[in-house]
Automatic annotation (TrEMBL), chain A:
Thiolase N-terminal domain span: 10-277
GO cellular component: cytosol
InterPro entries the UniProt entry points to: 3-ketoacyl-CoA_Thiolase, Thiolase, Thiolase-like, Thiolase_C, Thiolase_N
Name listed for the protein in its UniProt record: Acetyl-CoA acetyltransferase
Example GO molecular function: acetyl-CoA C-acetyltransferase activity
Similarity remark: Belongs to the thiolase-like superfamily. Thiolase family.
Entry-linked PANTHER family: ACETYL-COA ACYLTRANSFERASE FADA2 (3-KETOACYL-COA THIOLASE) (BETA-KETOTHIOLASE)-RELATED
SUPFAM superfamilies: Thiolase-like
One Pfam family matching this protein: Thiolase_C
Protein EC: 2.3.1.9
Automatic annotation (TrEMBL), chain B:
Gene Ontology MF term list: fatty acid synthase activity
Occurrences of domain MaoC-like (ranges): 185-259
Name under which the protein is recorded: MaoC family dehydratase
Taxon lineage: Bacteria, Bacillati, Actinomycetota, Actinomycetes, Micrococcales
Gene3D superfamilies listed in its UniProt record: Hotdog Thioesterase
Domain of life: Bacteria
InterPro entries linked: Fatty_acid_synthase, HotDog_dom_sf, MaoC-like_dom
UniProt source species: Knoellia sinensis KCTC 19936
One example of a Gene Ontology biological process annotation: fatty acid biosynthetic process
Signal peptide: none
Protein family membership: Belongs to the enoyl-CoA hydratase/isomerase family.
From TrEMBL, chain C:
EC number, UniProt record: 1.1.1.100
Similarity section: Belongs to the short-chain dehydrogenases/reductases (SDR) family.
Keyword Cell inner membrane among record annotations: no
A Pfam family of this chain: adh_short_C2
UniProt source species: Knoellia sinensis KCTC 19936
Protein name as annotated: 3-ketoacyl-ACP reductase
Length: 429, 285, 445
């Protein structure tokens, strides 16, 4: 059933800072610094200095305790009116897209007229945690009222308790890293090394081409001396990628390398959304509409499904709600967490058994036209600062659809830790 | 004529302070005619970031209002430590500071920083001198600073006192900052200003202070940072340092934006009548 | 920083030395301040014969709240002399009789403005001689003036007297601090001359495109135009995105990242201006680069890149900008003294900047441009304390600072103020002019 929405939520533009490799130029920039920079570029591009927006929704996957109000702090450090409200969301790598859906929903409902959705992540300036044992003992010391009690509690600390931990890319319930999870899925779907390398090389080539065409001139603002995604290798080829050693999976069948997996990166992105009336009042061009979004989760803990396969479930539900088929799109943006993620997802949609058994469909969703996939590059080339990826994709896709013309359609699919997947449909204006 | 001396890197302040401590008694009534110039200074982004973070500025590509001052400070100290400089470096107290930013400076601007001393004059409580710092980018004068120091001593009661500081804004604090005990060491690590009065209670006591005191230019930078991004664009600030901030401590930030000229101040949270600094800020727009 | 003579002789020992040795000591120039008076003092207005322009100037001054003086005194800060009616060189005696005594007591940062008619339109040989003489006199006065004063000539075409007000205002004000010994040509206006409601906001409601706005003179231009009321579209390379955003946000304008040499740069500016601001009124072509080398050693790409950025890009962008700019708009190009006087090691740069002057003259007379009532003018900065001039070797640079009648380098804001003046709607009678902002530099005089 399609519910007629009271009004449409328009995507008016976006901005991001170039993504930097871990410990690169942004090594010491905090999430707040980077998100502020992304906001400042957006504010400058759309002349929003001093403007009170409906809200700014941001967030980061890896956050310091001090950043409990990260987005609000970034707003206060920006040129936006300090009266602009803000909040943080965390839905792993789906954060940025989820935020765009949240803002668009509020716009559709008439609760707000405008908003910014975005996200930021740093793999460099990560918080350091003490071991769980030490943390509990330290908290106990802190609770004591007298010095003697404090000293007693302090004596309970054993040398073995001391150690630090940084947030790892590991699923708490399985103890497996995301790459190890993905290796299982890739093996299950028979994704070859060659296919993965091909996808990775194309991602780099497409991103390089997009830069050459000036595609990012109005999507990006230089930061700390970096003007292009640092991870980009314009001369990347399948042959070069083939030389890399596998890093995930074991033995003979291991196919996943550093070249066909996204590297750890730092960066931030932001997307401006608004009602059509607000856009007109502010002389802003509607680039696209955020039509609808869907989130799915899978049970990866008990081995029923791959960790990053949730989008494969979210997309058919979204298509059904919108009365569309998988082939009704001009562009597909499937986030390249790993090359094998994209390939496994597409293979699943083509697979009769998966589509009928798992998705409960009558027939497979079918193939997608690969020439419409990630045409301006994706995460393998650009990098993937977790919460920033959604904003990157939404802004780029909105621009592509605007260039394509009214009525054009784009599909976004982003997998996330915890076995979740966030997907959305954009329509060109 | 002015003697121009160029430096390709800033003199080490630790050495300068040691030299100053060992220097004999100073006297005289003329200033050295030297102009010390740090040439082709490329901004170290790590250093910039550390400074931005410590002083509360946003971490971005724009140089904070006060940043060129710390690039020029080693030259100031070098000049003041010299035997040709009539006042003792160790006894100088920074009383006022004026900065004009002519254009927004960016991290990729290559700066020349020139420092000279001028206007040695009498004051009711001693003698005053101005250390003038000029920053240029490829010859374009982009930033100037004037730091006024007093050497307390036999003053001339009839001498001019200079411009009166405006009153510290009254009313409730806009913010309250806890300044940690090691703030002086943190700022010393960034600015190079290892003057013992800032480093540790013991070294400060040796210099006649009850505790370590915060660097004046940190308190000024922190206050300016609290006034928002516009301070880094074309603007002029005047700061008057009143009572030193003993570390650790809590200070209240007070601001009055109702007039064209923004006035801000810092006062002790527990004893509001203790005023640490007051500053005025004029921005181009 | 290099040894700064101006700074040296202004303070401390330098001051004493300069006084003893009789070296020129630069005066702090009077620059425009929002809310300030047009000129801090009275203005002596006189004329030869009928002096129709003098009458206009008296009205203008009383409207601006400036007292008109009839005789020299220390409270006189400016002299405006109307010589439009001179018939023979003998009539120039009026100038000697009025300006001579006035100079003795003229207040610091004073102004001398002599208004004449173009020699080309003289009806007799004697009249042409007298008219041409004015420029020579004023240039000499500029060199004789002390205390940061300037002297300029305004040549008003027959029947174009009504258009003189804006120029006189500009020249009396602090906006023209570093403009001296220039000849302003006032012709019949290309559109309606409209005085602003508030002379502190002469660009209120206007939208201005400034290229190369992320730094240096470009940022100063954006600042100045915004101060005068314009909404700024700040244009610069994507690589300068961070600083560009800072400028745009500080001024409440918009940032547009593009390479001016791109084929579609003009179209992109138009698209941005129309979509965001409903059009644009002012274009300042400021983006420029230098790639200095002696001509003998200049390779093709060094040659080409300078011409591409500094000249060809403007020609290309104008093809899109001129049809789109609002009627009555203003285009201002940034030339350079190097384009007038030439400079060793700068053949490519001089070519581009001289080309800008030719382009300015030709475009101002273009039918389509005239039909839309657009003015096209250029500024040629002299020794301005900027990155460009710093590429000049040390000795030349120091001499550059001194080799002008004001004994100091100009500031980026001085260039920006003249650009702002060219963008006034009150100023539709000045077009096709190239004005040097050089403090009467000796080079290329």
């Amino acid at each position: 059933m399609t519910t007629a929405s009271p009004r449409r939520a328009a995507i008016l533009g976006g901005n991001r800072i170039p993504f930097a490799r871990q410990f690169g130029p942004y090594a010491n920039a905090s999430n707040q610094d980077m998100f502020t920079a992304a906001l400042e570029g957006l504010v400058a591009r759309y002349g929003l200095a001093g403007e009170r927006l409906g809200e700014v929704v941001g967030g980061a996957v890896i956050k310091h305790a001090r950043d409990f109000n990260l987005t609000r702090e970034a707003v206060l450090g920006s040129s936006l009116a300090p009266e602009t409200t803000a909040y943080d969301v965390q839905q792993a790598c789906g954060t940025g897209l989820e935020n765009a859906i949240l803002v668009s929903n509020k716009i559709k409902l008439g609760q707000i007229e405008s908003g910014i959705a975005g996200g930021v992540d740093t793999a460099s300036d990560a918080p350091i945690m003490v071991t769980e044992k030490l943390r509990r003992k330290l908290l106990k010391i802190n609770r004591q009222k007298t010095t003697v009690d404090m000293a007693k509690s302090a004596l309970a600390i054993r040398p073995g308790d001391i150690g630090i931990e940084t947030p790892a890319n590991t699923e708490p319930r399985t103890g497996l890293s995301m790459g190890e999870h993905m290796a299982i899925t890739a093996k299950k779907w028979g994704i070859t090394r060659e296919a993965q390398d091909e996808l990775a090389a194309l991602s780099h080539q497409n991103l390089a081409k997009a830069y050459d065409n000036g595609f990012f001139d109005d999507l990006m603002t230089s930061y700390l001396g970096l003007a292009k995604d640092q991870n980009l290798r314009a001369d990347s080829t399948v042959e070069k990628l083939a030389k890399l050693k596998p890093v995930f999976g074991k033995g003979e069948g291991a196919t996943m390398t550093a070249g066909n997996s996204t590297p750890l990166t730092d960066g931030a992105s932001a997307v401006l959304l608004g009602s059509e009336e607000w856009a007109a009042e502010h002389n802003l061009t509607v680039q696209a509409y955020l039509v609808d979004g869907e989130v799915a989760a899978v049970d990866y803990v008990h081995g029923d499904e791959g960790l990053l396969m949730a989008p494969a479930y979210a997309v058919p539900r979204l298509l059904a709600r919108q009365g569309l088929s998988l082939q009704d799109f001009d562009y597909y943006e499937i986030h390249e967490a790993f090359a094998s993620t994209v390939l496994s997802t597409m293979k699943a949609w083509e697979d009769e058994e998966f589509c009928t058994q798992r998705l409960g469909l009558e027939k497979p969703l079918g193939s997608i036209d690969r020439s419409k996939l990630n045409v301006n590059g994706s995460s393998l080339a650009a990098g993937h600062p977790f919460a920033a990826t959604g904003g990157r994709i939404v802004a780029s896709l909105a621009k592509m659809l605007h260039e394509k013309g009214p009525g054009s359609r784009g599909l976004i699919s982003i997998c996330a830790a915890g076995g979740q997947g966030v997907v959305a449909i954009l329509e060109g204006a | 004529m002015t003697q121009k001396e160029t430096f390709s890197e800033a003199p080490s302040l630790a050495k300068v302070f040691v030299r100053a401590a060992l220097a004999g008694k100073k006297s005289g009534s003329t200033l050295p005619a030297s102009e010390l110039v740090l040439t082709d200074h490329k901004v170290d982004r790590q250093h910039l970031m550390d400074y931005q973070r410590l002083c509360g500025f946003g971490v971005d590509d724009v140089l904070p209002h006060t940043y060129p001052h710390i690039l020029g400070f080693p030259l100031q100290a070098e000049l003041m430590a010299r035997s040709s400089f009539p006042l003792p470096l160790a006894g100088l107290v920074h009383t006022e500071n004026t900065i004009t930013v002519r254009r927004t400076l960016n991290a990729d601007d290559v700066l020349d920083i020139a420092v000279h001393a001028e206007d040695l004059r009498e004051h009711p409580k001693g003698r005053l001198v101005d250390l003038v710092t000029e920053a240029t980018v490829d010859g374009e004068s982009v930033w100037s600073g004037r730091s006024t120091y007093i050497a307390r001593g036999k003053g001339n009661p009839d001498a001019e006192r200079g411009a009166e500081a405006p009153p510290v804004p009254q009313g409730i604090a806009a913010a309250q900052w806890s300044l940690p005990g090691d703030l002086g060491r943190q700022y010393a690590a960034v600015s190079g200003d290892v003057n013992p009065i800032h480093m540790h209670p013991l070294t400060a006591k040796a210099m006649g202070f009850p505790k370590a005191i915060a660097h004046g230019m940190w308190t000024s930078a922190r206050t300016l940072a609290a006034l928002g991004r516009s301070v880094n664009g074309p603007s002029t600030s005047n700061v008057w340092f009143k009572k030193p901030v003993l570390l650790p401590s809590k200070v209240d930030f007070v601001v009055d934006r109702s007039q064209a000229l923004t006035v801000a101040g810092l006062r002790a949270t527990r004893k509001p009548e203790t005023e640490h600094l007051v500053l005025t800020l004029e921005t181009a727009h | 920083m290099a040894f700064n003579y101006g700074q040296f002789v202004s303070g401390g020992i330098g001051k004493q030395l300069a006084t003893t040795l009789g070296l020129p000591r630069p005066t702090k120039l009077r620059r425009h301040k929002v809310g300030g008076s047009l000129i801090p003092g009275e203005v002596l207005v006189a004329g030869h014969g009928e002096a129709p322009v003098a009458e206009r100037v008296r009205h203008l001054l009383s409207d601006a709240g400036v007292k008109v003086a009839t005789s020299p005194s220390t409270s006189v800060a400016g002299v405006v002399l109307d010589l439009t009616a001179v018939e023979t060189p003998a009539d120039l005696e009026t100038l000697r009789g009025v300006v001579g005594p006035a100079l003795k007591t003229l207040a610091p940062t004073g102004r001398v403005i002599v208004i004449g008619r173009p020699p080309e339109s003289a009806t007799s040989v004697a009249q042409a001689a007298a008219r041409r003489a004015v420029e020579g006199i004023v240039r000499s006065i500029g060199k004789e003036m002390r205390g940061g004063g300037t002297a300029n000539t305004v040549l008003v075409a027959e029947g174009a007297d009504a258009g003189v007000d804006a120029t006189v205002r500009f020249l009396l004000s602090g906006r023209s601090a570093y403009v001296s010994a220039q000849v302003f040509h006032v012709a019949k206006p290309v559109g309606d001359v409209a005085a602003p409601a508030d002379w502190d906001k002469p660009l209120a409601g206007k939208v201005a495109v400034v290229t190369g706005a992320a730094r240096g003179i470009g940022a100063a231009i954006a600042d100045t135009l915004a101060r005068d009321g314009a909404t700024i579209i700040a244009v610069d390379m994507p690589q300068a995105g961070g600083p560009l955003a800072e400028v745009a946000n500080r001024l409440g304008g918009t940032a547009l990242q593009l390479d001016v040499t791109a084929e579609d740069a003009g179209a992109k500016i138009v698209e941005h201006a129309q979509a965001r601001h409903g059009g644009f009124d002012i274009v300042v072509h400021n983006a420029g680069i230098t790639r200095d080398k002696l001509l003998a050693n200049t390779e093709a790409d060094r040659w080409d890149s300078v011409l591409q950025v500094n000249l060809l890009s403007i020609l290309r962008m104008n093809e899109a900008l001129i049809p789109a700019i609002n009627d009555g708009g203003h285009i201002v190009n940034v030339s350079s003294i190097a384009g007038i006087a030439g400079n060793r090691g700068q053949t490519n740069y001089a070519a581009s900047k001289a080309g800008v002057i030719g382009m300015t003259q030709s475009l101002a007379a273009d039918k389509a441009v005239l039909k839309k009532g657009i003015t096209v003018n250029a500024v040629a900065p002299g020794f301005i304390e900027t990155e460009m001039t710093a590429k000049v070797p040390f000795a030349t640079r120091e001499v550059g600072r001194l080799m002008n009648s004001l004994s100091q380098g100009g500031q980026p804001v001085d260039v920006a103020e003249t650009i702002g003046f060219f963008a006034w709607d009150a100023n539709r009678a000045v077009t096709g002019n190239t004005v040097r902002v050089c403090g009467q530099m000796l080079m290329g005089a």
